[in-house]
Write a structure and sequence with these properties.
By secondary structure, this protein is an alpha+beta fold. The protein has helices spanning 11-14, 19-28, 68-76, 98-102, 111-117, 130-146, 163-172, 198-221, 233-240, 256-261, 274-282, 288-293, 296-303, 305-315, 344-365, 396-401, 410-424, 454-458, 460-465, 477-480, and strands spanning 60-65, 85-89, 92-96, 109-110, 122-125, 150-153, 157-161, 186-187, 225-230, 248-250, 331-341, 368-378, 388-393, 433-444. β6 and β7 form a beta hairpin. α6 (130-146) packs across α8, α13 (296-303) crosses α14 (305-315) and α15 (344-365) packs across α17. The chain binds a DNA duplex (9 and 7 nucleotides) through residues 68, 88-92, 94, 108-110, 126-129, 132-133, 152-157, 270-276, 306-307, 326, 329-331, 333-337, 373, 384-391, 435, 437. It catalyses: DNA(n) + a 2'-deoxyribonucleoside 5'-triphosphate = DNA(n+1) + diphosphate. Belongs to the DNA polymerase type-Y family.
Length: 482
Amino acid sequence: EQLGVEPAEEAGRYEEEDAAQAMERVEAGEADCSPGAPGPEEPGGLTWLVPEGSSSSRVIVHVDLDCFYAQVEMISNPELKGKPLGVQQKYLVVTCNYEARKLGVKKLMNVRDAKEKCPQLVLVNGEDLTRYREMSYKVTELLEEFSPVVERLGFDENFVDLTEMVEKRLQQLQSDELSALTGSGHVYNNQYINLHDIVHIRLLVGSQIAAEMREAMYNQLGLTGCAGVASNKLLAKLVSGIFKPNQQTVLLPESSQVLIQSLSHVKEMPGIGYKTAKRLEALGISSVLDLQTFSPKILEKELGISVAQRIQKLSFGEDNSPVTPSGPPQSFSEEDSFKKCSSEVEAKNKIEELLASLLNRVCQDGRKPHTIRLIIRRYSSENHCSRESRQCPIPSHVIQKLGTGNCDVMTPMVDILMKLFRNMVNVKMPFHLTLLSVCLCNLKALNTAKKGTIDYYLTPSLSTTSRSGKRSFKMKDSHMED
DNA sequence: TGGGGTTAT
DNA sequence: ATAACCC
């Protein structure tokens, strides 16, 4: 899968390969992409080519795992490998492996339709996300080893800013190695590579790193995926999907217009969602070119200056948003959907289940949530996706009990949740819910406050109760609650 | 459409 | 608290 050796029309062939074969191809590729650059004279490295970071352009990689849930299931149970496999949540096949896709199964397909299309389809239940979530974080952690700036997008996608790493590698590069420099994977649009162009060079080095990332994912975690390398997140994401599965593509700047113009509708642009696409449609905007050429003033008036300016820049392939390190999660939530819940007792039982799982997760995380939220969805024929929520601070005495083994923290928290429930739902009237969700958020690190510091005396658990067992002075409640 | 996530207002 | 976006 060395640059330049793969004509686009051959890409389909790789879908027949298994992951191991494809990986072997990656390693076995022959150098091919050098147009025969002149050997730079300076023996020390390439710093002469890069005048003090004059190139402000970035190198971003988007890493996208192939049918992630299905891959995790096949690792859990290798007997599933080679069979058409779907992952089921309720009555939906939320994702499936490539065997199943070949037989006509699509993502988010109804189980009935899928079974009709593909009677041999093997289904596994994927409503419990625990193993997917754990594997997802292993991937992110692996990528963080390459460079700490990793942004998660869902469970199966990550952005990594490779700019600094590429700079370092270029400084290490001996000048005579430049003429032999080769990227890895496909070049979008089969574009000609100019090794005199520092931007090309940097992106090629980015593609080498991307290949190393995919290799590490396969060797260490057994996972395959795609990667896209480009100068910003939008383009990296768009280009990562060009050759699938288990392949990678680099976008050189001269082809960015070809890439974005290849989208058949503005809705395909990441950042333009369902609502915005509908509003654009009402303005007669459906293609990327429509959006590029639309009056900015009118667009600002219709969508607000923020959205208008952002999406119009996106339509030109411009995206200056940084890769924001995700770090640990901001919230933990568990939800369950169902046909009907119409009694308080029923709701309480479901809420207890959700909360019990959450408490395990939050306990493992180590940080403590300071806010709890209950979310419901009411039955209604039209507005299906609308949800309502109520949240409140978790009392500090409950926070302190979190993670302390046999202490019953369920009872006070269920009491809080049921108050939130009755605040949203008039239980004296008939009701019909189709979803319940509990979210623990506003996570704060454990007390690292040291004795003798201000923090120590302002930290209720340390300065009042835990030292002597009795309060040495009284804290104001307002300091102890959120 | 499921079972998650994020940020902006 | 909701609305938009992402998977």
